[in-house]
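Quality-control log, excerpt.
Job 1 of 2 completed; input and output follow.
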Amino acid sequence: MIGFLKGTLVAKRPPSLTIEVGGVGYEVDAPMSTFYKLPEIGQPLTLVTHLAIREDAHVLYGFFSESERALFRNLLKVSNVGPRIALGVLSGMSVEAFYQCVREKNVASLTKLPGVGRKTAERLVLEMADRIPEKQDGTDAVAASPSAPASEAHDALLALGYRPAEAERMLKGLDAERLTTEELIREALKRVHINGGRA
């Protein structure tokens, strides 16, 4: 099992990034909560990781904090919730905000997350109720092509589970010349929350 990676960030294209460790480039999928905190290309980076082993691939997931990884792992234990939905949850709200929704049985807020319909939201509330930690540990594990942020943001939204038309509507009107890829994605996801879950 690979518990963490400590190396140099060599590429980032949401939801994937590449870290060079000892001359080996590790491809890692990460939620937007991690992408918002990434350093510039060429800078040192440490992420805690989770290795998912499937029949057709070994996929490595990376997180800035232990609390994010713990939530990701707990989400994978929920019926019919896979890594894609788990990443969408972490991309759409903070760890504490998610647990607050579970405590309050706030199904409506959970349905605003990418890939989460009402049945999935209800299942999350039910099955995660007994997995809420008493105290949140938000301690971070560590204290893209800039010419096409709109395209990268669009790809990231598709990877999070949104349909192409939804992604286009979410990005429409945003200043792709001024905003970075991460900022575009952040603003697009905000629109979903403001509009009650509709892009």
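Job 2 of 2 completed; input and output follow.
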Amino acid sequence: MKLLVTLFVFISVSFFSSAQDTKAQAILDKLSAKLKSHTSFYVEFSAIIKNSATKTNESETGKGWVKSNKYCASFGDNTIISNGIKTWTIVKEEKLVYESDADEEDESINPRKLMTIWETGFKNKYGKESSLNGETVHSIYLYPKNPKSVEYHTIVLYISKAQNELKKVIMRSKDGTEMTYKLNKYTPNAKVSDSQFVFEPKKYPGYTVIKD
């Protein structure tokens, strides 16, 4: 559950516009354009959280489906479903379902938002070309425009030079925590049934639904 909350914090903070590094911005704009050309997608990822001071070492896997303004994402045993009108956050450990209006979430936990976190609210800086799993990647550093409003100070993106795809993200927090997010699979224009975005209470017997 701690990892899930950290992921939410990671992608749901409020951002503000800022000036950008020309080379970094060109790469990010190209990636954004590619992602926005996809009507739907399926993604699989893994995440690791480490903090030597607190002896934290947690790992989790996740996957998500996006179609228009609808999405469904899972992080370990926890699931989020949104039909574009309502959003349901299902926490297995507590047997609770939190229901809220989709517009109240501001799409902050939408997998599409996670895949385009750089679009607003950051200063960016090009790092260098390096090798990741045998392929050349660009590293781009993101710094929040309003650092006092967030718990982290730096995000590093690793983007495939040949494929123009996001491969890895590292978030470094002020308390020494480092979260590494790796994209293991990305399927553009995936065939996704609308039933994927429907919350069915009968699938969660014994769960308490809490409405905002």
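Post-run check on job 2. The chain has one domain: 2-203.
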